Amino acid sequence: MHMADALLAPAVAATMYVASGAAAGVSIHQLRKDDEQQKLPTMAVTAALVFAGQMINYTIPGTGSSGHMCGGMLLSALLGPYGGFLSMIVILAIQCLFFADGGLMALGANVWNMAFYGCFVGYFLIWRPIMRSHWFGEGKGAQRARIICASLIGCIVTLQLGAFSVVLETSLSGITELPFGAFVSLMQPIHLAIGLIEGLITAAVLCFVLESRPELLRDVQPSGDPAKHSLKTTIAVLAAVALVVGGGLSLLASSNPDGLEWALFGNAESGYAENMGLDEDDFGVSSNAADKAASIQEKTSFLPDYSFSNSDSSAGTTVSGIVGAALVAAVALLISFLGGFFRKKKK
């Protein structure tokens, strides 16, 4: 769902930067009150895991499209909405600047569409109410059922909101070749399928954490059963999964266009519909702001499209997965460390 700069007018892009920046400011303010030291390694490794997970596009059968996880629900369940949102900003900024994934001018919109809904709407309106409820009874089995339920509902609802926001933002940008009704009718169903698969992935990861270290999950009451693994072991397992996914399984990612690209350009080459039928080399709006953003991005992206420049070697994907996950983990860890430092200094 990473938007390109051509889908946004500068005014709309600036508005989304302001909105996402305001949410980031609130998140930073709230995290200054948080003294949970275990969040440092958890934030680093889960952010790396989401980065790696976003590299794997899974095929949506019968459509010619593919999807990848956003990760907002997963991060907010482990880090809370504020830590999750800031982690998503780190992921999306690194993807944009170093891998040319999503436009730089569109970064504010991408943060809003992919992070805000999953972290804030998903947590406050779905995850927390379900996990604090008495659905399915008591005990670890009931907790597991609530996690699965919250993950599925949360991912489906928040991806629907994100997809609809993409339609609104492009419509407000005045891209006349994208009729509102037709664009909605393509975006919403395909992201319903993508959200369902992300919900299953999110539930699997969170159920593993429930069995290993349930105290890492937000709003989960201790069941009294002993944890199966130490915190270090749990973090190590998640870190290993991030490396395997980013450095290895990413090579198996579907080559089909993702939900947004599929809606815009279709996949006629593989025998599927053209959908909106836009020209991939000439679509959307052009502006000086977008041109300047593209020139900056061209200089900063050392592994564009998760590959070596001017090379078709699959090694570029592996290196991108490992380097990107490490960068995300390092930046997330630095943010957590600086937050802890300033909290102590203030005290």
Low-confidence stretches: none
Radius of gyration (Å): 20 Å
What is the overall shape? globular
- The helix/strand order is HHEEHHHHHHHH
Distance between the termini: 42 Å
Number of strands: 2
User: Main beta sheet, described?
Assistant: 2 strands, antiparallel
Average the pLDDT over all residues and give the rounded result.
91
Q: Given the helix and strand composition, which structural class is it?
A: mainly alpha
List the strand order in the largest sheet. Answer: 1-2
Multimerization state = single chain
Percentage beta strand:
under 5%
Describe the structure concisely.
The protein has 347 residues and is mainly alpha-helical. The protein has helices at residues 10-31, 39-54, 72-99, 107-131, 140-172, 180-212, 231-247, 259-265, 288-300, 315-346, and strands spanning 58-60, 65-67.
